[in-house]
Amino acid sequence: MPELKEDGTRDALTEIERRSIAIFVDGVRVLGLPGSVGEIYGLLFVSREPLSLDDLVQRLGISKGSASQGLRTLKSLGAVRELEVVGVRRTYFEAAAELKPLVGGFIREQVRPHLESGETKVMALQEAVNRETDPAVRGFFDERVERLENWMRRGRMVLPILQKFLGQ
Amino acid sequence: MPELKEDGTRDALTEIERRSIAIFVDGVRVLGLPGSVGEIYGLLFVSREPLSLDDLVQRLGISKGSASQGLRTLKSLGAVRELEVVGVRRTYFEAAAELKPLVGGFIREQVRPHLESGETKVMALQEAVNRETDPAVRGFFDERVERLENWMRRGRMVLPILQKFLGQ
DNA sequence: GTGAATGTTCATTTTGAATTGAACTGGCAA
DNA sequence: TTGCCAGTTCAATTCAAAATGAACATTCAC
């Protein structure tokens, strides 16, 4: 059930807002993040004024829970800036729209952890292969493990290149 | 319900097979592909003999439907080679384990389509913005659209760099 | 302090993607 | 021709991730 303002109405999204949201919902889905994160970022991206959590809840018709969790994710990625206004309790958010920190945040939060868990798993495979004694079989498995290690190495090396290229 | 051999048994996976599968299930999940695709590739990757669809069904305990669909995906990515043996109807598969074509296949099948649909959406946003008349508002939206176009451009440009770096 | 406003957490529900499995297709063999 | 084998398709089911919303903090205002 969509959340409504106290008067029971809800400001409809403009076409521009809807199109921006559509772009980022798709974008974050590709990156493996939930759609609500894309909705929030997409709306902030075309907002001239910063928005509060309650603004997001009302305009997007999502739950407070989703908005809170989505904002947490965006903060961890460095994709939103938090604006503390003196004398006002509510915190406001705006989109951080510079590519470099976005790419950096994504690599740090999403890519590196996966790479690392992959490396752990390859090491475990390596050990299982070391227990193999038949030399013919062993040669084949060694080649496979070596290949995986090579892929991992390239994965690690490509990240700084990506950052350099996409940053600024 | 897992598929069984006619005698009701099923060859258990070796530790090496299980570890390889675990690596690739994770790997393909990150890329947004279903886990069964990772299971199939993971098993093929450490198989010294090519395997048939029925072999995969039996060893992995997945349905014929999953195996068929998974193999189709892997073929489209160029991640498996099909071996036609003369006089034998069954077709056999082996893992294509060279990084370059894998990266190329992934970019062609998964990345480019998303990039293109993104570009279409940005164009639609552009048009909506063009209908905006208030000059102050217009300036802000123009800057946002320009930024998106810049991101798309970089996305397109980074692909060949990735390919060059990961290929060979 | 107390109450109201803001935001978080998490058990439950919902939703959509993955998987199943039965029906089907196409081709080969006898 | 008939029957069988290998593989595909797709409607129905299952399952995991996302979203909800009510209960729970926290903090500010008075």
DSSP summary: helix tally of chain A: 6
Radius of gyration of chain A: 22 Å
CATH topology annotation of the largest domain in chain A: Arc Repressor Mutant, subunit A
The number of domains of chain A: 2
CATH superfamily of the largest domain in chain A: Winged helix-like DNA-binding domain superfamily/Winged helix DNA-binding domain
The chain pair forming the largest interface, with residue counts per chain, is: A-B, 40 and 40 residues
| Low-confidence segments of chain A | 1-8
Shape of chain A: elongated
CATH first level of the largest domain in chain A: which class? Mainly Alpha
Percent of residues of chain A in helical segments? Answer: 55-70%
In quaternary terms, these chains amount to homodimer
**How many individual β-strands of chain A?**
3
* Main beta sheet of chain A: 3 strands, antiparallel
Order of helices and strands of chain A: HHEHHEEHH
**pLDDT averaged residue by residue of chain A:** 92
Domain HTH marR-type (chains A, B): 32-90
Protein name (chains A, B): HTH-type transcriptional regulator
Keywords (chains A, B): DNA-binding, Transcription, Transcription regulation
Pfam family, one (chains A, B): MarR_2
Observed structural traits:
homodimer, 168 residues, mainly alpha, Arc Repressor Mutant, subunit A, 2 domains, 3-stranded antiparallel beta sheet, 3 strands, disordered N terminus, DNA-binding, HTH-GbsR_regulator (chains A, B)
